[in-house]
Amino acid sequence: MAMILTTRAIALVLSLAFASGGAALSLVSLTTPADGVGSDRGLDTNGNGAFDWLVLEASVDLPTTDYWNVQAMLSSTSPPKGGVCGQAVPPPVPILETGLPYGSLLPPEYPIAWAGERYFFLAGAQTVRIAFRGTDIFRAGIDGPYLVRATLIGGDGIVYGRADGFAPVPWPGPPVMTWNYTTQAYAAADFEEPFRPAYFTGAHDDLGIHVDEDGAYDLFELRAAVHVNTAGIYYLNGMLLPRASDPNRYATVAYGYRDLTLEAGETNVALRFRGDQIRAAGVDGPWAFSLVLTGPNIYTWDGGNMTPQPALPGTAPYAGILPPTYPEVLCGETSAYSAVAFDDTIELARYTGVFAEATVDWDGDGLHDLLVVRAEVDVFLASAFEIRGALRVSDRSMDIATSWGQVQWPEGTAWAEFAFAGPDIRASGVEGPYEAFLSIIPLVWGIDPSTTYVTRAYKATDFDDRADGNRSYWIDSLSASVDPSRVLGVRVVVVRGNDMLTVVYEDTLTIELSDPAGVLVGSVVDRVVLTSGGSSWSMSATFGVLGSGTYTVTAILGPPSAPVDVRSTVVTV
């Protein structure tokens, strides 16, 4: 039967998770749980013969009419064979049963799944439905019977203030009820197997990597075999830790993360760790490691199974929306290494010696708005970098123009782009060739590679004197068309460069329409908001009904007296 906890001395233990192995405490009273009245059944919603849900119906007698918050945990007294890292799972923290003189320890319970709901109930006899996801049970790999510990909390609890008003926080204050139950016997394999777009097959190896000739390892690379069912972009992260037998087992040796594109089939993934982190940790290998693979793309763990739905726009090449997935985890031990075998200062990127040079004329007036120098770079570890450049006279006596930006590069080959403003070069009055000093600064510490490049010969007057050069945002496209009813439609797209600045750019955009005589016949002004690097903003406007003739459409980004960018096009009606 259900237990009603009122003025009796009770203690509620909030759910806790411990990093030592995932042991947890449920929200239970410190008295021996007695089974409540109810029923349970497996529910197959997609007709494949496996249970998608374990559904329970709890019979309770509620003391008040109110909203009731239901929190439930499915658990077992049988421990799993091992945790996600193949290590023995410690039992949950023991709880003392009430009684004299000291009480006795309640049996340990290992959590499998959780559920939470909020309902409105009338006072009196009620049936409360609780459902646990089948994929959680399959993933735990523990056969039933299972224990259910449910807590019902009546009312809204504490009311707290927030920006949009006030909202309640459910709180374990009176009235509180607990419902404890033991299910029928089930096999974990009776439940729905989670969808796995990719998973580790178990094989792994590792090696130290040299990027220079000083004899010390600069990077540590961990490789693992993966079977991929669904191609896409995945996210891989990992940690190196001391082994459980190491006195420093609670320390972190190194960590790493990266995005990677995986094709369907058998493949390998690789994750690199910084050698200077390993050196600083001072812990010799073998090390325990964990790798976590999630994806593809936006599909992350949602704790359950669902039937794929028809494809949404923009989801190609997927045939349908993928069901939620769990993270895939691989753990093990590396080969033996000495921490002092790794370099204490590492090189994350290096110039290859390949360069490219170009000029940009934004407004088509025949003068250069930008002088762009590109340098090819080998990136040894995915990282964020600050790139700085200085354009100098040949004897290095004066800086003519500068360039600055931030980038995030994956491992592999990348291009560092240094854009120097044409008006700065024009104002210097110095003729080329120029020497470009190019620097790459890792944002997370490391060697700062730098190099120089000599440009082609230019005249200072080859460059524009307007400040349209090294811009953070600009007009990407301007299109205009006339429909059969002689209404002119105009669309302008403004884009922001791929910067990493945490600022919002705001400006104005004006669209002007001039008739064949050059007389302004209409204009529209709107605000442009670019929230982050790589973002875009569009504006549409209509003018009409127009008479016959050729019209000029002009888009002005920024104040007309000092525009950031100007584009124009002509249309004939």
Q: What is the overall number of helices?
A: 3
| Oligomeric organization of the protein chains | single chain
Biggest sheet, spatial arrangement of strands: 1-12-9-6-7
| Total beta strands | 35
Query: Can you summarize the main beta sheet?
Result: 5 strands, antiparallel
Strand content: over 45%
The best one-word shape is flat
Q: How many domains in all? A: 4
Gyration radius from CA atoms, angstroms:
33 Å
How much helicity do the residues have? under 10%
Quickly give the structural class. Answer: mainly beta
Stretches where pLDDT is under 50 for at least 5 consecutive residues are 1-34, 96-103, 159-164, 298-321
* Average pLDDT level: 79
End-to-end span in angstroms?
83 Å
Please give the structural blueprint.
Elements: E1 3-5, E2 16-17, E3 24-25, E4 37-43, E5 53-62, E6 66-76, E7 110-121, E8 124-133, H1 134-140, E9 147-154, E10 158-162, E11 165-169, E12 176-182, E13 198-209, E14 219-228, E15 232-241, E16 254-262, E17 265-274, H2 275-281, E18 288-294, E19 309-310, E20 320-321, E21 328-333, E22 349-360, E23 370-379, E24 383-392, E25 399-409, E26 412-421, H3 422-428, E27 435-442, E28 450-454, E29 473-482, E30 488-496, E31 505-514, E32 520-530, E33 536-543, E34 550-557, E35 565-572
Antiparallel strand pairs: 1-12, 2-3, 4-5, 5-8, 6-7, 6-9, 9-12, 10-11, 13-14, 14-17, 15-16, 15-18, 18-21, 19-20, 22-23, 23-26, 24-25, 24-27, 27-28, 29-30, 30-33, 31-32, 31-34, 34-35
